[in-house]
Amino acid sequence: MNPEQLWTGVLMAVTPFLLFGLGGCYNIDTTSPLIFTDHHADSRFGQALTLHQHGSETMLVVGAPKGQCNYTDIVRGGVAYKCSFTNHNASLAGNCTELQLDNRGNDYSGLTGRQIYNKSDQWLGASMSSGGPNGSLVICRPRYRYYFYKSYGAQQQQRDLLGGCFVLTQENFDTPNILLPCITGGDRRCQFGFSVDAKKDHIVYGAVGLGRQEGQFWRSDSNGEERQKRPTKKVGGTKDYTYMGYAVTSGDFKGDSDPEYAISVPRHKQAFGKVVLYDSDLNEYNALENGDMGSYFGHTLVTSDLNNDGYDDLMVGAPFFTDSFSTNGSLWELGKVFIYYNDRNL
């Protein structure tokens, strides 16, 4: 299906400036913003953001995947912060507290003393998503590493980018569920949680590292349990290094009140990219391909009912699109955003 409307990255880049220029019309205070920061160099504070409501508390959750946590044996493992913004007061700037997701440092074998899991440079907070008011909050660490030794006495170790996520529900917000599904249920290099999208009753996760980075995606209930995955095993061949699961989202695309899943494969066919659609039973039923060579179609996915018709629409980013046939010469990495309006047959 062709998108009914597409915008180039240039127009999308200009739009925020137009909106801010009209800020006075919308009562936006452009002179004294409430500012939060990590105060640590190279923490990448703000790489991921989500709004979340837990009980009566509304918080801005901010990821700093290179931040330094409170454990001295973990070097730049990343930090997830919750920031208060309920009072618009400049004195609250920087009023963020670290979410305590893990209660220990790196893990070592009690039998051999050798390291098993490495949390340094795990990129905690690189991806996150909220399931809405009083739903689950999911915070992931796609570079969490597992050390595998070839035999009991061997010193040589294999370091696998296992990945993992924390699921904070209303009932266990202070003791989150820890998800490491690839340690037993998949390839130990799967980078689980590279992307994530939480909804009220389910969560979908991207895992780009399966096999030779052919990737896969997982689905769970809102607690992180009852997990399923596609594909179920490595395929290889032309699917190597295609990064399935680079971006994930879900919505009611078929108009049947059941969730469908949009999973990006941005390096498909020389990085033309594609987005694969799966039904509620995780069967593939459609694929969108509107990219050009190297455009990374599917780099970003967003679902929303744009025209208020009761059906979810799909937006797809292709940030590296290049217009090679422009009358002004090649416009490198111009970018495009595709909007697929849902006619209940997406």
Automatic annotation (TrEMBL):
It holds the Pfam family FG-GAP. GO terms for cellular component: integrin complex. Its main location: membrane. One of its GO terms (biological process) is integrin-mediated signaling pathway. The lineage of its organism: Eukaryota, Metazoa, Echinodermata, Eleutherozoa, Echinozoa. It is a single-pass type I membrane protein. PANTHER family: INTEGRIN ALPHA (PTHR23220), INTEGRIN ALPHA-PS2 (PTHR23220:SF133). It comes from Strongylocentrotus purpuratus (Purple sea urchin). InterPro entries: FG-GAP, Int_alpha_beta-p, Integrin_alpha, Integrin_alpha_N. This is Uncharacterized protein. FG-GAP repeats lie at residues 283-346. It is found in: Membrane. SMART domains: Int_alpha. Keywords: Cell adhesion, Glycoprotein, Integrin, Membrane, Receptor, Repeat, Signal, Transmembrane, Transmembrane helix. The keyword NADP does not apply. The chain crosses the membrane at residues 6-26. Belongs to the integrin alpha chain family.
